[in-house]
């Protein structure tokens, strides 16, 4: 058995053992054995396909909403699985604050479904990085726990160090789009040898205003990426807030 196959075997064995010792429970109703039961899954507000390719808003004009129609975006497309509400919101909370590794793999499976409905052909997957202070406090980057299993599912190379956060930023909560843009300006630096000429998929948990994705994609393009696409588990929908 090769070292790669042995590593895959041990990872699968460890996951199976953990699932047996600590079986998942539905985040919506508490049913044992599943992360989200069929009934609760049916209540999730999925982001439809006919939305703006750049911000995920409803549109009927060539893939662009009125706000993005005359806008030059640094990334070539954006998609999200569902709106940031209900059970999906709980799932992301578990991923982000309760160090739940298994929910990350489950959500990566949902991202795979979204990716497979696009015509994107990427050759590198990177997570949105978090600041060093947050990593020390939390112990991990939740976007990395989505991006890495997604890369494994899609058999696409993954690099956690292709994009690095160089500036700590204040909380984005309560800021409007312009304030969020200013808050993340020059927050990232890309590793040019890793991204030059590559088609990069940037993965994060939630898309709010797009400011973080724009800042990350701008840096990746400046470092020589051929194209950048963005994918998140959830998108904040102002109509639901």
Task: Fill in the keyword field for this structure.
Rossmann fold, alpha/beta, two-stranded antiparallel ribbon, 241 residues, disordered N terminus, 2 domains
Question: What does this protein structure show overall?
Answer:
This protein has 241 residues and is of the alpha/beta class. It has 2 domains: 1-43, no CATH class; 45-235, Rossmann fold (3-Layer(aba) Sandwich). Helices cover 39% and strands 15% of the residues. It has helices at 3-21, 38-42, 86-97, 101-116, 132-138, 144-154, 177-184, 192-195, 211-222; strands spanning 77-83, 124-127, 163-165, 188-190, 199-207, 227-235. The strands form 2 sheets. A 4-stranded parallel beta sheet has the order 1-6-5-2. Strands 3-4 form a two-stranded antiparallel ribbon. The radius of gyration is 18 Å and the shape is globular. The relative contact order is 0.15.
Summarize the model shown.
The chain has 241 residues and is an alpha/beta fold.
Secondary structural class: alpha/beta
Task: Please trace the helix and strand order, writing H or E for each element.
Answer: HHEHHEHHEHEHEHE
Biggest beta-sheet profile:
4 strands, parallel
* Low-confidence runs: 1-16
| Shape verdict | globular
End-to-end separation:
52 Å
Which strand-content bin applies to the residues? 5-15%
- How confident overall, as mean pLDDT? 84
Number of domains: 2
Strand arrangement, largest sheet? 1-6-5-2
Chain-wise SSE layout:
Layout lengths: L2 H19 L16 H5 L34 E7 L2 H12 L3 H16 L7 E4 L4 H7 L5 H11 L8 E3 L11 H8 L3 E3 L1 H4 L3 E9 L3 H12 L4 E9 L6
Parallel strand pairs: 1-6, 2-5, 5-6
Antiparallel strand pairs: 3-4
């Amino acid at each position: 058995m090769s070292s790669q196959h042995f590593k895959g075997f041990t990872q699968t064995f460890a996951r199976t053992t953990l699932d047996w010792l600590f079986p998942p429970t539905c985040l919506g109703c508490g049913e044992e054995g599943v992360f989200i039961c069929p009934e609760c899954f049916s209540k999730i507000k999925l982001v439809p396909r006919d939305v703006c390719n750049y911000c995920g808003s409803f549109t009927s004009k060539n893939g662009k909403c009125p706000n993005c129609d005359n806008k030059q975006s640094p990334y070539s497309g954006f998609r999200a699985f569902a709106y940031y509400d209900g059970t999906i919101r709980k799932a992301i909370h578990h991923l982000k604050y309760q160090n739940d590794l298994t929910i990350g793999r489950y959500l990566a499976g949902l991202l795979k479904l979204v990716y497979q409905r696009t015509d994107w052909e990427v050759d590198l997957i990177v997570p949105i990085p978090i600041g060093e202070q947050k990593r020390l406090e939390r112990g991990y980057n939740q976007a990395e726990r989505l991006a890495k299993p997604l890369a494994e599912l899609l058999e696409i190379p993954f690099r956690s160090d292709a994009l690095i956060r160089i500036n700590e930023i204040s909380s984005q909560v309560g800021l409007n789009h312009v304030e969020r843009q200013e808050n993340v300006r020059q927050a990232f630096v890309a590793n040019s040898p890793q991204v030059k000429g590559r088609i990069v998929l940037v993965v994060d948990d939630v898309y709010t205003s797009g400011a973080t994705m724009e800042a990350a994609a701008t840096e990746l393009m400046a470092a020589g990426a051929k194209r950048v696409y963005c994918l998140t588990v959830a998108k904040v929908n102002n109509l639901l807030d």
